Amino acid sequence: MSWLKDVIGTEKAVIAMCHLRALPGDPGFDAAKGMNWVIDRAYDDLTALQNGGVDAVMFSNEFSMPYLTKVKAETAVAMARIIGQLMTEIRVPYGVNVLWDPVASFDLAMAVDAKFIREIFTGAYASDFGVWNTNVGETIRHQHRIGAGKVKTLFNIVPEAAVYMGERDICSIAKSTVLITDPMRFAFQD
User: Which InterPro entries does the entry mention (predicted)?
Assistant: First the structure.
């Protein structure tokens, strides 16, 4: 059984994005409207997505622009508050994506009991927000150190607004990503 079937209940899942409005610390955050306004917008989006029949939802800080590759604490904390307040309304499996920080994504997943995350884990990129270098070894070790080994990972192989800095095709990148992040899949069995 695939993890999609196990976690979401179907092999061909529709995972919808619940894009959270700008959060405290983001240039676009409206302090006059405050967090309750952000939570209300997230509630409206979550309700519409679930009523539309999606199989799962992923919460993301889409409006935390310009993006950081290592977010400040207030971003993940605000996301945890929002998801925590929506918890009784969530009727489908859910994941999180703290753009563009895989460590913060795992931390948030553990805090809100999310079943999966999506993030950039591997590669070096030239992006609209500067040169971006990941550290998959550090990230996967962090995942296991905090007990998030069962949190499923969706790998964004080449992020939008960025180009891979090496001269490799996307298939080669995907194959090496699987090899370095799940080496036991290729281990010799006695």
Answer: BtpA (IPR005137), RibuloseP-bd_barrel (IPR011060)
